[in-house]
Amino acid sequence: MALRARALYDFRSENPGEISLREHEVLSLCSEQDIEGWLEGVNSRGDRGLFPASYVQVIRAPAAEPPPPARYANLPAGGFEPLPPPVAFKPAAQQPPPAAAPEPFPLPPAAAGYPFPPAPYGGSYQPSQGSDDDWDDDWDDSSTVADEPGALGSSYPDYEAAGGGASGRYRLSTRSEPSLGSRGGAGHPAGHPHPPGGGGGAKSSATVSRNLNRFSTFVKSGGEAFVLGEASGFVKDGDKLCVVLGPRGPEWQENPYPFQCSIEDPTKQTKFKGMKSYIAYKLVPSHTGQQVHRRYKHFDWLYGRLAEKFPVISVPHLPEKQATGRFEEDFISKRRKGLAWWMDHMCSHPVLAQCDAFQHFLTCPSTDEKAWKQGKRKAEKDEMVGANFFLTISVPTGPGASLDLQEVESQVDGFKAFTKKMDESALQLNHTANEFARKQVTGFKKEYQKVGHSFKCLSQAFELDQQAFSAGLNQAIAFTAEAYDAIGDLFADQPRQDLDPVMDLLALYQGHLANFPDIIHVQKGALTKVKESKRHVEEGKMELQKAEGIQERCNIISFATLAEINHFHKIRVRDFKSQMQHFLQQQILFFQKVTQKLEEALHKYDSV
Predict the structure, then answer these.
(1) Which of 10-14, 121-125, 510-514 has the lowest mean pLDDT?
(2) How many CA atoms within 13 Å lie on the side-chain side of 408?
(3) Is 297 marked within a binding site?
(4) What's the domain count of the chain?
(5) Is residue 335 part of an annotated ligand binding site?
């Protein structure tokens, strides 16, 4: 007889792979052995997944029994604050609970042994702390914005594309409705068998296994849940991200309204009657022409939201934080240049440039705190993250639009090798440029000024000769000494003009190169699931239709990955072409200045 359990409390799923429970609902268990406080089973609606073991009671007798009151005796006597009431979970097929059912009493996570779920993709990113632009209570308070009408989470059961919803909103789902008794579920942790007597023929008995490492990027990004068919949500027309076929393969559809944004005039400002100081940067987007002021913490918040929302897009890294010297002129200037590079890459990306959170960041008036907080909370409540993010990606269809998995894998492997080599080369160039700049600022300047000082000493010695015909020579040698002093100063100042911009660009691209291993890991994880599903089909353990669904969803991730790779190469060629031209132009100007100083000294000897 299959293991069964009764739900003691309501539970609403919040992460891919979880299922929702209703109080008194009877479930089928896959195994009585819990996985770090979680059990796997199938609820009364046929959804299969994980739920907290402390929220159910295993039924050991043939007849179902009501939940024993003794369960509540295990609650701690004060020490825990009850969880806030969960959001109502109302699938279409669900009937309301009996009128006599008692109110649910949710256990606190700490008391119930409820494991803390893995953080969403990007959740490991830490916003700037007190060492660099403190988070102020008036900016990051606990106020919230009401949810948009009809905005549903990914935990709702799937339906066909909604035809009666609001205009421009479509219900998309990767789940399938199997025939009665043959629901294969969305997979299960390796090592845990299906429930005995689960029903179904041989082709529905196998599922693609889940990754054992639940903290891998493939899992945390929602890629696994999407590929396994667990994503479901409403997608607005404005949320769609289109991949098109270009001359170099898949590409992101270009932004129809491109723009740029300058970052100017960093100024020191104060608040709380001068008790707190910070640097504000003036931003002027070209598509609005309206200037706004943003602090580094605003950039920091935006980066965190974008890194979480876009798992297959390389969000450029911000300039590094600094605990001390934040108000020094050199640091402020260097940070402004780094933010300018960051902004250029944001505006140049077809997807990031049109993101609602980025547009709110660029256009919300600096003085309207209420509007800023509302837009901030809306971005933080975005439901198109995790597995649901992949629902927003629209890929080419029709003849010639399909991807060959082997070719995709070869391209991704080639790009992986490229990024590894580029990262090594960027590190080497950065080290060489930094060392050369140090020598110019200290060693070269000192050496040229030593030569100038030696010429000056010679001139002073010659001045002891009071003959009139030697005066011209003495003056020429003294001028030569001054020329070498000036050349030393030119060497010390030159890195600001040529080497520093190169190192700023390398720093930006090192951030991109650090992003791509995670992006590639998501795509590789999807390919692994496709290979596993094909093996099940060959062994007669999985229906072909289900395996094709997995491959179709893998293709979406592959299209997006290849589009991001092509964008990276396109922007890389643009940036390095421009920067190398600038470097060489500055080098030419520098040596022209040096030559001019030497020529001026040379002409002094013509009249001797």
Answers:
(1) 121-125
(2) 24
(3) yes
(4) 3
(5) yes
